[in-house]
Amino acid sequence: MADADAIKATLGWAIGGVPPFCHDADVPVFLDETLREYEEVWAAAGTPEAVFPIAPDRLRQLSGATVADVAE
Fold first, then answer.
1. Ramachandran region of residue 33, left (φ > 0), alpha (ψ -120 to 50) or beta?
2. Distance CA 4, CA 69 (A)
3. pLDDT one-digit tens code per residue, 23-60
4. Measured in whole angstroms, how far is the alpha carbon of residue 4 from the centre of its chain?
5. What are the extents of the domains in the chain?
6. How far is CA 21 from CA 15, 26, 68, 72, in A?
7. Read out DSSP for 49-71?
8. Which residues pair with 30 in a beta bridge?
């Protein structure tokens, strides 16, 4: 598990609210392949209390995510 202070320092967002894009650093982003089974998913929007709806393929496009099996 990542260190909360390291995440905040690297990405600019607190854990629990890290959005899939708009990071302070260039980091790899992964999209679990099973999310593509849904028309809409909910992503973190900068705080632990904020989320937004988005189509998985649009999320992949905006975040530059690599689709992968991350559920293991």
1. alpha
2. 24
3. 899 999 999 999 999 999 999 999 889 999 999 999 99
4. 15
5. 4-68
6. 14, 10, 17, 23
7. T-EEEE-HHHHHHHHTPEEE---
8. 66
Please report where in the chains the tokens 């990405």 appear, as a residue. Answer: 11
Q: What is the pLDDT of residue 62?
A: 94
Cα(69)–Cα(7) distance, rounded to whole angstroms?
23
At the fourth CATH level, the homologous superfamily of domain 4-68 is: YbaK/aminoacyl-tRNA synthetase-associated domain (3.90.960.10)
| Token pair for 5 | 């202070």
pTM of model > 0.70 = yes
- State whether the Cα torsion 58-63-69-72 is positive or negative: negative
